[in-house]
Amino acid sequence: MSGLDKKRAGTAAGRVRIWDLPTRLFHWSLVVLVAVSVVTAKLGGLWLDWHFRSGYAILALLVFRLLWGVAGSRYARLSHFVRGPRTVLEYLRGQHEGPHVGHNPLGAVSVLAILALLLLQGITGMFTNDGSFTEGPLAKLVSNATSNRLSTLHRWGELAVYAMVVLHLAAVLYYLLLRRDNLIGPMFSGDRLGIVWVGYDDNRAAKLSGAAAAMPIWGEMMAALDPEPLALPKPEGIEIVAIDPETGLRGSGCPGAYEVPFVAGSAPEGRAPCADGKTVERVRGWLERIFGR
Question: Are 227 and 220 within 8 A, CB to CB?
Fold first, then answer.
């Protein structure tokens, strides 16, 4: 995050974790299973057994996504990106162009439509029949006429799935080619890259630096994104010891003491005069052994 040497522009950049691992696994698993369902449906015959299996797997994924949409991480929750009709209309009119983490209002509608359509396909598929020997596991629970109607609905739903897939791919290409916003990469890595550049198009001197120009804008953007802090697990064989800055000895309780990671057994044995008593150290040691810190 720095300005150009000749002060011609100000730049700032940073990454934010948007899609957690469960959400990414759900997305790509759904892509594979939908493709398997389409191919096995076209092949027919004995391949329909695999069509049903992929359908069961899709239903399981959808149930997981709905649960993860309630109990998952911040950006995976449905409450984070699902908006009302008014917000969607404002977005379509260009009146709601603020920073959108994950899905924008229109993208959220697309997500809900895809989930609802696949859920409908999965449910109707349980009652379908192919008019000969293959039928869904619940087909016998309804009349033959009802099963036929649901089979017709299931076939029409297949066309709707094709349409949604085409729209989804068209939207991804639109953002990639026209808006220079890569939506594919973050679905692999989970991260979105935010870059702010402030300067003249003809590259004449603007007497700006990253701190003076781009950083304030980048800071506002990052605040709007509400990034989560990075919490790294402590490696095995490492102990955290409070060190007294005056003596370099163990200094738990000393003014200005700071925690330093040490390879287990390599931390200073001596205790600074200002450190807590032995009882406190024993309690701390017990807690570290119990909780692994």
Answer: no
